[in-house]
């Protein structure tokens, strides 16, 4: 098995995790959590999103959080945006990195915004220009490239079309996001291998939800295909409002623990991370989806 010696994780709990929670954390609680994640060693953190506060009240204070945490040396703080208004908010609060998203499902896109995924990405051009002119970096995400509840498997040509549309508007960092939890390891290996071969200049990220227990296996498959950037969320928090029964993101502590045991460097301190996850779930008032929080580390058995 050929695996990398080091990988990079982006902690998405503050965005993907908290946006699905009925309990809204205060900006000071979020700040404490973000500082804890930085202290634990995360170099990339998705801090929030610039969406309509009416639609996503959990993320309404993302601007404030960026102002409080701005410019942490060596740490990339990114946010999800959907439109021009979001980019303007990002510029205004000093956010330096934004991520746009499109669903790979034609049915989903047409029903929601009456555009195909490719047309949606093409319509981002103006926003990307505005962001770049103001010194922001822009990345793109494709949700459900491994399958959607609307049409099942998505033909790889359709996903490639979206990748090409992103590249055309100047986005060279792309995340493949299994929000529906339908990806399988072989499919992940095949798609990641083919995408990297075809678009070697793109920086790839993989984002797995653990809806059907395959997220960890999918990460291994992606690593075997040469991918080294993954999103994870502490406590396995998260969900997806569009997908019935969607579970949270793969838990950060499960991923860091596995990498530690396999000698793959993540730069993250597992003990600090476990403490943060426990603290967050206690605050949210429910259990998470995390094996390590239940069972502890393998090493702890040897005491
Ligand atoms: Zn997600």
Mean pLDDT level: 95
Terminal Cα span: 30 Å
Named CATH architecture = Alpha-Beta Barrel
Which strand-content bin applies to the residues?
A: 15-25%
CATH-assigned homologous superfamily: Aldolase class I
Q: Main beta sheet: strand number and arrangement?
A: 8 strands, parallel, barrel
C-alpha Rg (nearest Å): 18 Å
Spatial order of strands in the largest sheet? 1-2-3-4-5-6-7-8
* CATH fold name: TIM Barrel
How many individual domains? 1
The dominant shape is globular
What's the quick description here?
By secondary structure, the chain is α/β, with parallel strands linked by helices.
SSE layout and pairing:
Layout: E1 8-11, H1 13-17, H2 27-40, E2 44-50, H3 62-69, E3 76-81, H4 84-93, E4 97-103, H5 106-113, H6 117-122, H7 125-133, E5 137-143, H8 156-168, E6 173-178, H9 185-198, E7 203-208, H10 215-224, E8 229-232, H11 252-261, H12 270-284, H13 291-295
Parallel strand pairs: 1-2, 1-8, 2-3, 3-4, 4-5, 5-6, 6-7, 7-8
The structure holds zinc ion.
Give a verbal description of the structure.
- This protein is of the alpha/beta class.
- It has one domain (8-301): Alpha-Beta Barrel (TIM Barrel).
- Helices cover 42% and strands 16% of the residues.
- The chain contains 13 helices and 8 strands.
- The chain has helices spanning 13-17, 27-40, 62-69, 84-93, 106-113, 117-122, 125-133, 156-168, 185-198, 215-224, 252-261, 270-284, 291-295, and strands at 8-11, 44-50, 76-81, 97-103, 137-143, 173-178, 203-208, 229-232.
- It has an 8-stranded parallel β-barrel, surrounded by 7 helices.
- The chain is globular, with a radius of gyration of 18 Å.
- The chain starts with 7 loop residues before the first strand and ends in an 8-residue tail after the last helix.
- The model has no long low-confidence stretch (mean pLDDT 95).
- Bound molecules: zinc ion (ZN).
- The site of zinc ion (ZN) has 7 residues, from loops.
């Amino acid at each position: 098995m050929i695996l990398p010696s080091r990988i990079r994780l982006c902690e998405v709990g503050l965005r993907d995790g908290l946006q699905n929670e009925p309990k809204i954390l205060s900006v000071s609680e979020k700040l404490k959590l973000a500082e804890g994640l930085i202290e634990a060693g995360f170099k990339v953190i998705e801090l929030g999103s610039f969406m309509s506060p009416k639609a996503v009240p959990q993320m309404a204070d993302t601007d404030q959080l960026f102002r409080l945490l701005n410019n942490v040396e060596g740490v990339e703080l990114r946010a999800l945006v959907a439109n021009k208004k979001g980019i303007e908010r990002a510029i205004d609060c000093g956010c330096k990195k934004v991520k746009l998203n499109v669903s790979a499902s034609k049915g989903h896109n047409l029903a929601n915004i009456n555009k195909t995924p490719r047309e949606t990405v093409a319509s981002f051009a103006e926003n990307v220009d505005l962001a770049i002119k103001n010194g922001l970096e822009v990345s793109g995400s494709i949700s459900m490239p491994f399958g959607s509840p609307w049409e099942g498997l998505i033909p790889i040509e359709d996903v490639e079309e979206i990748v090409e549309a992103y590249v055309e508007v100047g986005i060279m960092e792309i995340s493949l996001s299994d929000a529906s939890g339908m990806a399988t390891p072989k499919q992940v290996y095949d798609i990641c291998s083919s995408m990297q071969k075809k678009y070697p200049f793109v920086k790839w990220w993989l984002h797995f939800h653990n809806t059907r227990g395959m997220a960890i296996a999918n990460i291994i498959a992606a690593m075997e295909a040469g991918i080294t950037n993954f999103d994870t969320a502490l406590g396995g928090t998260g969900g997806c409002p569009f997908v019935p029964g969607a579970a949270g993101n793969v838990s950060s502590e499960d991923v860091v623990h596995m990498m530690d045991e396999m000698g793959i460097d993540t730069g993250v301190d597992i003990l600090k991370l476990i403490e943060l996850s426990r603290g967050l779930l206690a605050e949210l008032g429910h259990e998470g989806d995390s094996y390590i929080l239940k069972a502890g580390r393998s090493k702890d058995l040897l005491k």
